């Protein structure tokens, strides 16, 4: 008590050594009490986590998680050791045992603790007797696809069980893929079916006049145009409609000769000779292209007209008029040019690689940019026997009716020519065919993750389906999605087989 009474914490404004020592001791006691409480709380948390949840939260530090995990009641892993991981939970793994820089061993990860999407390894089944009806196991193959087999069940260096190969499955060309991998990659198959495969050939086109329906009005003798009817370029005329009146000395002379022979009845004794004279005079008028109705008027009226009316030779639209009143027309001068537009042509420029798909008589659909919403149907009449060296296209002539005259020459058109088989053929989706350039293959789905590559001969390739002429039949299931995975597996298997065969030959 005297010491306590004599205790003076301050002397002259400064703490004494004894006071400082007492305060330091109190601080140590407080820190020790806090550490004891924190340790108790940590142990309690670890006990609860270990008994309630096999996994620890992410906010637990790695070393504390490893310490708590060691006291957890989570069941130990089963199966072979797959790999070893860092004890602190870092993304560090090892195939063999190893230690951290501070000497702590890596944690073993067993098969049951590893995440896998594949089916669990198949357990070896004893060989079945031939009379029991079950498939007999021929051998066991390497689970990684290596060219390694075993007559008895075994494991590889990674601890994976060898896969049994049953009787009827020993096909060197068959690819086996685990169902889990198929599900992840989205492999899908569907049966080949009978379909009408069409592929429209699209090409630009231009509307042209039918060359066989174009006519000109010209004279075969020197003439003078007396008058021209009220028709001009763009007007529609009918066959026999008057176009102009002209005077021709040659026509008048031939008409007078014909009239004199027809009207002369003195030489009736020689009827055969007279008939020849009449036919010769008439032929001269016809050679001058005098219309038949004008010759009939000469015979009927017994007079030669001063002027002759020239008529339209066919129905059509006047494309050109050069006839002018009072002009002198020389033989061969074109006075009128007209065309029948009831049937027109569409000249399409088809790419060189599409020419083989275009056939004579194929249906063509014409769409005009100036007549949106309207379609015109025609048929292929001719494939021109020449390829344009600059554009690498071939001209295809399409004929189609034009009854209302809305299709005008030199219009631009979009042409779509139907091609392909008219009858149903065996077809598969376009994605099912793998074209390597040298050959085309499809993968046949044999079920249970087994696939077989099959060479096929393709025909018409449509927008959605491809014709198969040889290799598969109707009902065969083919892979239509993710077949690149199966193709990669097939190539790997072939490469390994070739490597093994090369090793054996040495």
TrEMBL record:
Cellular component terms per the entry's GO annotation: membrane; outer membrane-bounded periplasmic space
Protein name per the record: Membrane fusion protein CusB
PANTHER family named among the record's database cross-references: CATION EFFLUX SYSTEM PROTEIN CUSB
All copies of domain CusB-like beta-barrel, residue ranges: 344-419
Gene Ontology biological process: copper ion export; plasma membrane copper ion transport
Domain CusB-like barrel-sandwich hybrid: 214-339
InterPro entries (alphabetical): Beta-barrel_RND_2, BSH_CusB, CzcB_C, MFP_Cation_Efflux, RND_pump_MFP
GO molecular function: transition metal ion binding; transmembrane transporter activity
Keywords for the protein's UniProt record, in alphabetical order: Ion transport, Signal, Transport
Organism: Afipia carboxidovorans (strain ATCC 49405 / DSM 1227 / KCTC 32145 / OM5) (Oligotropha carboxidovorans)
Family: Belongs to the membrane fusion protein (MFP) (TC 8.A.1) family.
Domain CzcB-like C-terminal circularly permuted SH3-like: 426-486
């Amino acid at each position: 008590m005297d010491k306590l009474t004599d205790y003076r914490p301050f002397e002259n404004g400064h703490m004494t050594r004894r006071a400082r020592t007492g305060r330091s001791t109190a601080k140590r006691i407080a820190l020790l009490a806090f550490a004891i409480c924190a340790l108790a709380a940590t142990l309690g948390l670890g006990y609860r986590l270990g008994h309630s949840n096999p996994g620890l939260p992410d906010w637990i530090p790695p070393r504390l998680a490893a310490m708590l995990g060691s006291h957890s009641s989570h069941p130990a892993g089963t199966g072979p050791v797959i790999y070893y991981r860092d004890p602190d939970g870092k993304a560090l793994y090892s195939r063999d045992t190893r230690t951290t820089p501070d000497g702590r061993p890596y944690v073993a990860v067993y098969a049951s603790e590893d995440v896998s999407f594949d089916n669990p390894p198949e357990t070896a089944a004893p060989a079945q007797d031939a009379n029991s009806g079950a498939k007999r196991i021929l051998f066991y193959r390497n689970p990684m696809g290596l060219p390694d087999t075993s007559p008895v069940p075994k494991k590889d260096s990674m601890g994976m069980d060898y896969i049994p190969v049953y009787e009827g499955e020993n096909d060197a060309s068959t690819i086996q893929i685990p169902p889990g991998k198929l599900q992840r990659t989205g492999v899908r198959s569907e049966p080949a079916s009978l379909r009408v495969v069409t592929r429209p050939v699209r090409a630009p086109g231009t509307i042209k006049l039918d060359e066989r329906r174009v006519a000109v009005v010209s004279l075969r003798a020197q003439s003078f145009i007396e008058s021209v009817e009220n028709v001009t370029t763009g007007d529609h005329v009918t066959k026999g409609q008057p176009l102009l009146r002209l005077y021709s000395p040659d026509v008048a002379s031939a008409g007078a000769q014909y009239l004199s022979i027809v009207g002369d009845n003195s030489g009736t004794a020689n009827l055969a000779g007279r008939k020849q004279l009449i036919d010769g005079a008439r032929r001269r008028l016809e050679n001058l292209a005098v219309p038949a109705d004008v010759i009939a008027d000469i015979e009927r009226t017994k007079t030669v007209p001063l002027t002759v009316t020239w008529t339209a030779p066919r129905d059509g639209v006047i494309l050109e008029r050069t006839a002018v009143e009072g002009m002198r027309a020389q033989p061969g001068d074109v006075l009128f040019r007209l065309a029948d537009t009831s049937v027109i042509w569409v000249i399409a420029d088809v790419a060189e690689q599409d020419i083989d798909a275009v056939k004579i008589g194929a249906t063509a659909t014409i769409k005009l940019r100036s007549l949106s919403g309207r379609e015109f149907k025609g048929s292929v009449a001719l494939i021109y026997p020449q390829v344009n060296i600059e554009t690498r296209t071939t001209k295809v002539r399409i004929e189609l009716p034009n009854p209302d005259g809305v299709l005008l020459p030199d219009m631009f058109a979009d042409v779509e020519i139907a091609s392909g088989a008219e009858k149903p053929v065996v077809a598969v989706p376009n994605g099912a065919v793998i074209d390597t350039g040298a050959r085309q293959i499809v993968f046949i789905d044999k079920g249970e993750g087994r696939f077989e590559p099959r060479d096929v001969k393709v025909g018409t390739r449509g927008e959605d389906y491809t014709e198969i002429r040889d290799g598969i039949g109707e009902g065969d299931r083919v892979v239509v999605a993710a077949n690149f995975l199966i193709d990669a597996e097939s190539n790997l298997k072939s490469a390994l087989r070739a490597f093994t065969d090369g090793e054996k030959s040495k």
